Structure formats: structure tokens, C-alpha cells
Amino acid sequence: MATIGSASFQDGRVASKRLMMLVALLLVSCCLCYGFGDEDNVEVQGNSSSCMESERRALLAIKSDMYDPDDWFSSWTGKDCCGWRGVACNNITAHVTKLDLRYPYTYHQALETIGGSKVNPSLQELKHLEYLDLSMNNFSGAPVPKMISSLVHLEYLNLCYAMFDGLIPPQFGNLSNLHYLDLHGFLGDLYVDDLDWLSRIPSLKHLDMSLVDLSRASNWFHIVNSISTLEVLHLSTTGLPYAPSPLPPFNLTAIATLDLSQNSNIILTMLRWLSNATSLEYLYLSDCGSLFMEPLQVGLASLSNMKELDLSYNFLRGEILGILSNVSGGLKHLDLSWNYLSGDITQTLRSLRHLEYLTLLGNSNITGHIAYLLGNLTNLRHLGLWDNLISGEIPPTVGNFVQLEYLDLSYNGIAGEIPPSIGNLTGLVILDLSKNFFTGQIPSSLGHLTNLESLDLSWNNFVGCIPDTFGTLVHMTRLHLSRNQISEQIPESIGDLQNLQFLSLDNNALTGQIPKTIGRLHRLQKLDVSYNNLSGAKFPDWIQTQQRLQYLYLSRVGLKSSLPVWFLDFSKGLRELNLSSNSLKGQLPVAPQLMLDLSNNSFVGPIPSSFAQATYLYLLSLSRNRIDGSLPPFFCSMHSLKVLDLSNNHLLGEVPNCHSSFPTSLQSLHLNNNNLSGTIPRFLKYCIQLIILDFGENKLFGEIPTWIGRNLSSLKVLRLRSNLLHGTIPANIANLTFLQVLDLSSNNLIGSLPSSLGNFSAMIEKQNDTWSVLHVDNYYYSESILLTTKGEIADYTTVLSLVTFIDLPQHQFYS
Ligand SMILES: *[C@@H]1O[C@H](CO)[C@@H](O)[C@H](O)[C@H]1NC(C)=O
Ligand SMILES: *[C@@H]1O[C@H](CO)[C@@H](O)[C@H](O)[C@H]1NC(C)=O
Ligand SMILES: *[C@@H]1O[C@H](CO)[C@@H](O)[C@H](O)[C@H]1NC(C)=O
Ligand SMILES: *[C@@H]1O[C@H](CO)[C@@H](O)[C@H](O)[C@H]1NC(C)=O
Ligand SMILES: *[C@@H]1O[C@H](CO)[C@@H](O)[C@H](O)[C@H]1NC(C)=O
Ligand SMILES: *[C@@H]1O[C@H](CO)[C@@H](O)[C@H](O)[C@H]1NC(C)=O
Ligand SMILES: *[C@@H]1O[C@H](CO)[C@@H](O)[C@H](O)[C@H]1NC(C)=O
Ligand SMILES: *[C@@H]1O[C@H](CO)[C@@H](O)[C@H](O)[C@H]1NC(C)=O
Ligand SMILES: *[C@@H]1O[C@H](CO)[C@@H](O)[C@H](O)[C@H]1NC(C)=O
Ligand SMILES: *[C@@H]1O[C@H](CO)[C@@H](O)[C@H](O)[C@H]1NC(C)=O
Ligand SMILES: *[C@@H]1O[C@H](CO)[C@@H](O)[C@H](O)[C@H]1NC(C)=O
Ligand SMILES: CC(=O)N[C@H]1CO[C@H](CO)[C@@H](O)[C@@H]1O
Prior knowledge:
Helix content: 10-25%
Shape: globular
CATH topology of the domain at 605-814: Leucine-rich repeat, LRR (right-handed beta-alpha superhelix)
Strand content: 15-25%
Number of helices: 11
Radius of gyration: 33 Å
Mean pLDDT: 85
Bound molecules: 2-acetamido-2-deoxy-beta-D-glucopyranose
Structural class: alpha/beta
Distance between the termini: 29 Å
CATH architecture of the domain at 605-814: Alpha-Beta Horseshoe
Largest sheet: 29 strands, mixed
């Protein structure tokens, strides 16, 4: 017998936190291309009608090869090409000096496809160009045009994310007037053979070659160091080769921004070398392999102008004080996430009074008292402390942190009530206080946070009701209040959260009916109100208007009806469906795509043949219903199935003997308490991931096959009790070294259990019900194996130890 615990997205969230960080990284690099070539920056010299005809024709030819779905080139008509959008001319010579063709990309479009463009050869006729921006276009992997190197007056050249491919032409060294060069790659298909050509550009101030493969540029360090005019240098994700010591004397006296993120050859000497970069304000060394504390401390201590520091995703070990007490007091932005730092931050943080952005996510061992560490850091806009050991209570003075937009204190040890003054933080967009020890009521002042998009208070000890004021949070997309002791009715005003996509209220003490107003939430993708004290005799009608619903969890909400006809079809579009522990009657619905739990209801009839289409199902539980008929053969082809629970039904006949196709992902198989006959099916010997195999209380006959002991080496639970099995117990059962529950009693077996299995009978007397939790994808699936021994030890039953936790690898996550 198995019951499914309510879905929880705990581990999914760990993963999605990582994902968020990656997206953030992407954004940072995208933003570098922003701001240049915005419409505001284009000097349109509308009055001069002195555009040269030859250049006008060249421009029209260039335009003809550009992808332009939104008609950005609509102003490119008439004689006066100097007035065209993105074009500027010299006001004396009338030559075109500026061409800004940056694709008007916004962040949200960044994941969309952009049609292909080409660089028209007429570009080289614009010989007087000083400014050329082709960034963000899709040049579909064409080679970087060599002819650009003939535009020797260029001071500004931007090819960021332009999707060129191949070698960056060394002829670019001819562009000796360049101040600004952005060659930021797209998917890492750009490369150089060396960087010698760069040394012919003596006054370069801004260089971005992120995502360009520089692994062949063995002298990169010497070249870059020789360009002493450099102010901004981005070389993230470039496979920089190791720079052998001794390094040349530090020469980048003007450097303000240095980004070497995602390069694993940042060596100790280079950190020491960096300590002479006293003008440095922005330093990004995220994901650089192994950085070491001591050289880093020395380096940081001399960088007294530092404003932003990113050391995330390294393997930094040691006291966080080593960093905090050595960084510049003027620091505004600090990211130390995903390291192994430890220690108390209460005191040191307070001296970093200018901090606006602080994130220490996922270090696990950083301690501190939330009330004191906040101290005077009232400039904070972004505070991320997820997964550490922060304790204490949030002080009422939190209301002074009015700049906060992002506050994540989840997975810490913070207790006490949320002060009502939190309602002062009207700039908050994300508030995550989940997995702490908060108590008391959810303050109704949260309803003032009208910019809130995500609120997570799950896994705490909140009591009282869901404030009616939540209805004002119209920008909210995620609301998670799971696993508290929240009571009373779900307020009708929840239907006003028109942007809501994820709503989890499960595992609380909510009463009454699920409000119909949820039917107004047309963007809803996930709804979980399981495990409350809700009542609702009829299956809610309004679900049929939820076109985007993917995850529906209505376990134990008091449904007594049959499933309506429309739902039988609707369920097909869902990814996961849990209607367990209700009193639902009638025919089974169509299986959703990934997960179906209808256990503990009153469904009748055979398993419908339509289930054959659900080839991606990873979890199917129909236990404790009145399902009859035989186990259909299509289950042999369910290659994703990890958990199959059909226990406590009226299934008949033999288990199909699969021949060429086996459900090899199976980890948990419960077919106990049916009327199954035949022998133990042979194909199970290919299901070598099985952890739980329960055939108890059936009419299986034949002998216990020896392949169980030989092949099913992961088994923790083997229950064959109350069947018609005969013969001797195979000695190699003792080879199942993970076995914790073995029950072969009430059969016609002879012999005894191998003595090497041990006999921990005392445990059975203390606790007759063992349980475990399988974590399948995002789902917590509680297994419970009933041991019906009631204190007296039946023959052939042995509980080696209590099964407590089985962790399965997860394959996908949603949040
Ligand atoms: C355009 O030029 C005319 C005269 O040549 C002048 O009066 C007018 O102010 C100019 N307009 C702009 C926008 O510069
Ligand atoms: C020409 O442009 C330059 C800068 O772009 C400006 O300083 C100058 O005043 C302009 N000259 C005329 C005659 O408009
Ligand atoms: C770029 O354009 C090509 C067609 O030329 C297309 O196949 C490709 O998907 C586009 N790439 C992106 C990222 O939009
Ligand atoms: C550009 O550079 C190449 C060598 O990289 C050189 O041979 C060529 O003469 C240069 N062209 C001009 C116009 O300077
Ligand atoms: C330092 O920069 C100057 C130019 O400012 C350059 O002449 C010199 O060669 C550079 N030194 C090194 C060691 O690269
Ligand atoms: C850093 O500067 C100091 C003094 O200004 C000098 O002695 C030292 O050699 C420099 N180190 C490097 C690596 O340039
Ligand atoms: C946290 O500290 C404990 C005890 O000092 C240690 O066992 C554990 O490995 C640390 N965890 C991390 C992630 O550093
Ligand atoms: C906050 O700043 C004030 C004045 O600058 C100071 O007196 C007080 O001690 C500071 N409080 C904390 C907690 O650092
Ligand atoms: C709310 O913020 C204001 C400053 O904007 C502050 O003066 C006030 O004390 C804060 N109220 C609370 C309750 O924290
Ligand atoms: C399994 O058990 C048998 C007898 O108990 C033993 O001979 C055999 O070596 C064991 N095999 C493995 C792989 O442990
Ligand atoms: C063991 O069984 C008895 C009687 O069936 C029941 O009262 C008791 O709660 C059970 N103990 C556990 C730990 O489940
Ligand atoms: C190089 C340097 O200044 N290191 C200092 C870093 O901070 C610690 C205190 O935590 C000092 O002891 C070090 O001298």
C-alpha cells in the first residue's frame, strides 16, 4: 500500500535557484550591449539634407539584407539619409559617420527566434564610418566580415551577440582608432588564433570578447596587459589559457571593470597581480574553478575602490570574514553565492554600509542574527541568504528597508512573527521566507506590497487565515503557503490575482470549499490545495476554464461525486494529477502525461486502454479503489514508469509476461491485495532498479525464482506474503544486502531464512508500520508498507531496520 504525499517543489527549487542564477549571469552580459544604440543615443541630424547619393544607395542596399519584422527601417525613405533612424552624418563633410543597426531586442524576446540578416558588401562604401553597431542581429553563423577592417576611421565597433561564426579576422588590428570593441560571442563558435593584432589598437578603452574561444591565444595576458588605456575588459567564458609566471608588471592603470568569469585558469599569481589594480571598481570572478582564500584576501585588501564583486560559484572554503573584512567599505554589490564559506556575518556586514546587493545563497554554514546583521544596511535592494544558518527574528525596523526589491531568507533558522511593518516595503517584487520557523499570523499588511510577483511562506508554522488583503497583489505570479497551519476559508479575493500561475496551499488546516473565484485565474499552471480540511462534494466545474493548467493536486479535499464527462478528456492535457483520498466514483479518467494518483477513492472498472498512450508516465497509483480486470500488457512499454501502485483492488489473472519491452525504470511496484494468479513474472529480472516489490496477498504460485537474489540487488522491500508459493527459499536472498523488509510468510515454503539476514524482531514490536518517502521528480511519494504482524513474528518475516528515506535521482523540475 502506498499513499502519495502532496507535491512539493523543494528540491526543484534548489535547481531553479541555480537556473535563476544562470539567467542572471546571462542578463549581466546581455546588458553590456544595452544602452548603446538606443534610440536616445542616436544623433539624428534631421536638418541637413546634404546626404551623399552614393552613401544613400549603400545604405539602401544594407537595409535590403536586414531582418526587419517591425518595420524599424520605415524612416529610411527620401533623399535625406542623414535623418534616417540610426544614421548620422558629419555636419561639415556630410559623410555618414554613424550606423546603428542594433536589433531592438528586449530581454523577453531574447529567447525567441530572430530571422537571419546578411551584411551587404556596400557597407565598405561607408568609408567615413566612426561608429558601427550590428549587435543583437542574427547573421546566422556567417563569417565575421573582413571588410569591416577597411573602415579605418571606426572608433566604435559593436558585434555583440550578432551570431557570427569562425575566426575573428586579425585584420581588425587595422582599426587603430578603436576605443570600443565588442565582439561578445553567442554560442561560443567565434575564435582567434592569437591576439597579437590587438596590440595595434593602442587606445582601446572597452574590450569585450566574452564567449569567444581564446584558448589558442597563449600570450593573451601579455597582450592585454600592454593596452594600458583599457578601462573595461570582459573575457568571461573564453577558455583563457594558463598565464605562466612571472607575470609582467601590472600595466592596466586605468582598469575599472574586469570580468574573467567562467575561466578555470585564474591562478594565484594573477590574484596577486590584481592587487595593483587599485582603480578597479567592478570585478567578476564567478565560476573560476578553485580560488583560494589567502591570495584572494591579499588581492581584495588593496582594491579600495571596489564597488561590485562577484565570487559566486567558486569552491571558496573558509571563514567569510576573510573576505568581508578585507573588501572595500564602499562595496555596493557583493555576490558570494555557491561557495563553502562559513562563519558569523553579523558584525562585519554592518561595516559594509553602502551595500545595495548582497547574495550569499547556498553556502550552508554562514551564521548570523538577522536583526543585527541588517543593522544600518538600509540601502539594500537585493538580499539573498537562501540556505544558510541565519537565526533570530526579523525586527520591526525591517520597515525602514524601503529600497528592498528582493528578499530571500529561505532555508534558514529564522523564527518569530513577521512584523507588520513589512508592509512598508512597497518596492518588494520577490519575498521568500520559506523553510524557517516563523510563527504567528500572516500580516495583512503584506497586501500593501502591490509590486510583489512572488511570495513564498511555505514550510513554516504560520497560523490564522490567509489575509483577505492578498486580493490587491495583482502582479503576483507565484503564491506558496504550503506546509503551515493556516486555517479558515480560502478568501474569495484570491480570484483577483489575475496573473497567478502557481498556487500552493497544501498541507494546512484550511476549511470550507475551494472558492469558485479561482476559476478566474486564467493563467494558472499549478493548483495544489491538498491535505487541508476542505470540503467539496462536487468536482469543481470551474476547472474546465483553466486552459493552462498543468499540475492539479486535489488530494483529500472531500470530493464525493463522479468525475464530470468533460474532465475525462481535460485530464489528458495535464502533466500531473493527484485526486487521491477523496470519495470519487465511476470510471477512471484519461491518464495525464507524467503522473497520476487516484488512490484511495471508489473508482470501478478495468484500467482503460487509453492509458496505453501515457508512455511518459513516471508515477501511476490507483491503489485502494475497486478496479478489476487484468493488468493490461501495455504496461510493459512504460519505460519511464518508476512507481506503479495498483494495490488493494480487484485485479485478476496473470501479470502480463513482457517479452521484448520491459518497464526497466521501475523502482516501486505494489500489486499486493489483489487476486492475481500465475507465477512471479520473469521479466522483472530486467527491472534491476527495483527498490520495493510487493506481491503480498494474491494467488501467485510456483517457486521463488533465484534471479531475485541475483539480479534485483537494489531491493529494500520484498513482500510475497499470503500467496500460494511453494518450494525452498533461495539462499541467495541473503545477497540482497540493502534488504530491510522481507516478508515471505503464509505460503507453502519450506526451509528457513538464511541466518545471515539477521533478526531484528524487536523493531516490529515497537513499530508495526514502516514508511519511507520516495522523492520522484518534484514529488514526495510516501510509501508505507503495512507489516501485519501485530507483535508476533510470523515465520519468514524479517524487518532488518526501519526504512526511513529513499532518495531517487530527479530528472526534471518545475517551479
Ligand atoms: C534647420 O535649418 C533651418 C535653416 O537652415 C533652421 O532655421 C532650423 O532651425 C533648422 N532646424 C533644426 C531642427 O535644426
Ligand atoms: C557639428 O557637430 C559638432 C559635434 O557633432 C558640433 O560641436 C558643431 O557645433 C556642429 N557644427 C555645426 C555647424 O552645426
Ligand atoms: C538565425 O537565423 C537562422 C536562419 O537564417 C535560423 O535558422 C536560426 O534559428 C536563427 N537563430 C536565432 C537564435 O534566432
Ligand atoms: C590590414 O592589415 C593587414 C595585416 O593584418 C595588412 O596586410 C593590410 O595592409 C592592412 N590594410 C590596411 C588598409 O591597412
Ligand atoms: C605598459 O603600457 C605602455 C603604454 O602605456 C606600453 O608602452 C608598455 O609596453 C606597457 N608595458 C608592458 C609591460 O606591457
Ligand atoms: C605592484 O606595485 C608595487 C608598487 O607599486 C610594485 O613593487 C610591484 O612590483 C607591483 N606588482 C606587480 C605584479 O605589478
Ligand atoms: C558545515 O559545517 C559542518 C560542521 O562544521 C561540516 O560538517 C559541513 O561539511 C559544512 N558544510 C559545508 C557545505 O561546508
Ligand atoms: C547605525 O548608524 C548609527 C549612526 O550612523 C549608529 O549610531 C548605530 O550604532 C548604527 N547601528 C547599527 C546597528 O550598526
Ligand atoms: C516606513 O518607512 C518610512 C520611511 O519611508 C519610515 O519613516 C517609517 O518609520 C516606516 N514605518 C515602519 C512601520 O517601519
Ligand atoms: C550469492 O549467494 C551465493 C550463496 O549464498 C554465493 O555463493 C554467491 O557468491 C553470492 N553472489 C554474490 C554475487 O554475492
Ligand atoms: C501498531 O498497531 C497498533 C494496532 O494495530 C496500532 O494501534 C498502533 O498505532 C500501531 N503503531 C504504529 C507505530 O503504527
Ligand atoms: C591582506 C589583509 O589585509 N588581510 C586581512 C584580512 O582580514 C583579516 C581579518 O579578518 C586580517 O587579519 C587580515 O590581515
